[in-house]
């Protein structure tokens, strides 16, 4: 008799098909509740300690479009100064200044200033621009962008690359 009971015991779990059927609905809901609880605690702690990588989208912060480039005396009369990190040229003629974008208006390569020819040239597809930024050869559809330049109260030149100005605009110092 005793051996018959043992047989039934041993076969019960086998009949039900393994571990998934041995967890009752109550146990499952309890586990789910604890899971949610620990997830909420984890989210709270990550906020507390500043870890945001998983819960927030990754955002690229760009530098301000407005920056100082120096004092007027730093730019010799008749010079074109390339500020590569800022992607601009500072063009000085007598007492006037211009900030011109280095970005070619064809497909966006960085143009370079040729001292010998006194023009801007694009190394990608050969567009050429006069010293005032106006295109005259190659596929570029329009002049280089001219950017706002001001002299601040401390006598420093500042450029705002988010503000485009007409070609003829000059800062007279
Ligand atoms: S990107 Fe400058 S000519 Fe094409």
UniProtKB/TrEMBL annotation:
Domain of life the protein comes from: Bacteria
Domain annotation Rieske: ranges: 66-158
GO molecular function, one term: 2 iron, 2 sulfur cluster binding
Residue stretches spanning the membrane: 31-51
UniProt keywords, alphabetically: 2Fe-2S, Disulfide bond, Iron, Iron-sulfur, Membrane, Metal-binding, Oxidoreductase, Transmembrane, Transmembrane helix
Cofactor names: [2Fe-2S] cluster
Documented EC number(s): 1.10.99.1
Protein name per Swiss-Prot or TrEMBL: Similar to the Rieske Protein II of bc1 complex
GO CC terms in record: membrane
EC class: oxidoreductase
């Amino acid at each position: 008799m005793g051996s018959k009971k043992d047989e039934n015991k041993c076969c019960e779990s086998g009949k039900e098909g393994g571990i998934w059927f041995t967890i009752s609905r109550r146990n499952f809901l309890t586990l789910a509740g604890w899971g949610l609880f620990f997830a909420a605690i984890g989210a709270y702690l990550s906020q507390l300690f500043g870890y945001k990588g998983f819960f927030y989208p990754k955002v690229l912060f760009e530098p301000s479009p407005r920056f100082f480039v120096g004092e007027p005396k730093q730019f010799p009369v008749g010079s074109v100064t390339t500020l590569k990190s800022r992607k601009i040229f500072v063009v000085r003629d007598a007492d006037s200044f211009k900030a011109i974008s280095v970005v070619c208006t064809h497909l966006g390569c960085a143009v370079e200033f040729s001292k010998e020819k006194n023009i801007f040239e694009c190394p990608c597809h050969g567009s050429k621009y006069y010293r005032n930024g106006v295109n005259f050869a190659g596929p570029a559809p329009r002049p280089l962008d001219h950017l706002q330049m001001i002299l601040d109260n401390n006598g420093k030149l500042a450029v705002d690359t988010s503000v485009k100005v007409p070609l003829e605009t000059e800062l007279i110092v």
